[in-house]
Amino acid sequence: MQGKGTFISPFHRPRCLAAAAPAGKAKLTHPGKAILAGGIAGGIEICITFPTEYVKTQLQLDEKANPPKYRGIGDCVKQTVQSHGIKGLYRGLSSLLYGSIPKSAVRFGVFEFLSNHAKDESGRLDSTKGLLCGLGAGVMEAVLVVCPMETVKVKFIHDQTSANPKYKGFFHGVREMIRAQGLRGTYQGLTATVLKQGSNQAIRFFVMTSLKNWYKGDNPNKAINPLVTGLFGATAGAASVFGNTPLDVIKTRMQGLEAHKYKSTLDCAMKILRYEGLAAFYKGTVPRLGRVCLDVAIVFIIYEEVVKVLNMVWKTE
């Protein structure tokens, strides 16, 4: 009893650590839960934000040498709605939806798997490790899901806006692409995609991890309001847009129907710079900024909330 009264601070410190250790372990998210929650979040998000993705892709494919078909974002939306109605803004949704669910599932599954091994005893992940875990998640999603699905999406949208579309639907389009170029045809722009997705997720998870650590302070188990999560997600999304839009432009060109004009990722970058100027690397930035901020905010909010539900019904500890 005397030790208790004499050494109050030392006594309480072990108690706090003892309480924090189990709580830290409880904060670890099972990769299986992350895969399921990520897939659900990815599916819902893309249904909400696809029109801005459609406009972004159209503007990036609208090269100056053609000459340009659209005068800007508003004109692109106007022409699309006049020609095909509101549903025209959702052309190509199926290809992106089929890719968004597994993409988000792989991203969060790999991130949680890596971060579970990188967190300290209290369950805290520092910013640098968050960046590295995000990089690993981005590379894996690029190779397993993003590159083939994005190639299909870009070719499908490009085909649907041509004078005589040859693809009757998503699966027909995939069959025709593979028949014409083999599986290799769905992996066009792999280098640019790996660079884009790797840097994307590295930036996003670095920002998210930094903001979460700042918000939680010394309490790694402090709950975060969904609106705050959304604000952090939008900030992370904006940072990734300004950080790698040039890679996104190169990736889109490498995956379009005219990808044969480029010998490699570097050749594509050099030709864009030579014939269109530096500004061409930032074509579609505004619609991409709006989509990505909303995208990342929605995904992180839904992901965190679904994980909370899964923790109640799926015991993994």
UniProtKB/TrEMBL annotation:
Alphabetically ordered keywords of this record: Antiport, Membrane, Mitochondrion, Mitochondrion inner membrane, Repeat, Transmembrane, Transmembrane helix, Transport
Gene Ontology MF terms: antiporter activity; citrate secondary active transmembrane transporter activity
GO BP term (any one): neuromuscular junction development
Residue spans of the Solcar repeats: 29-117, 128-214, 224-309
Subcellular location: Mitochondrion inner membrane
Cellular compartments per GO CC: mitochondrial inner membrane
Pfam families cross-referenced by the UniProt entry: Mito_carr
Protein name stated in the entry: Tricarboxylate transport protein, mitochondrial-like
PANTHER family xrefs: SI:DKEY-178E17.1-RELATED, SUCCINATE/FUMARATE MITOCHONDRIAL TRANSPORTER-RELATED
Recorded catalytic activity of this chain's protein: maleate(in) + citrate(out) = maleate(out) + citrate(in); phosphoenolpyruvate(in) + citrate(out) = phosphoenolpyruvate(out) + citrate(in); citrate(out) + succinate(in) = citrate(in) + succinate(out); cis-aconitate(in) + citrate(out) = cis-aconitate(out) + citrate(in)
SUPFAM superfamilies noted in UniProt: Mitochondrial carrier (SSF103506)
Topology within the bilayer: Multi-pass membrane protein
General function of this protein: Mitochondrial electroneutral antiporter that exports citrate from the mitochondria into the cytosol in exchange for malate. Also able to mediate the exchange of citrate for isocitrate, phosphoenolpyruvate, cis-aconitate and to a lesser extent trans-aconitate, maleate and succinate. In the cytoplasm, citrate plays important roles in fatty acid and sterol synthesis, regulation of glycolysis, protein acetylation, and other physiopathological processes.
UniProt cross-references to InterPro entries, sorted A to Z: MCP, MCP_dom_sf, MCP_transmembrane, TXTP-like
Family to which the UniProt record says this protein belongs: Belongs to the mitochondrial carrier (TC 2.A.29) family.
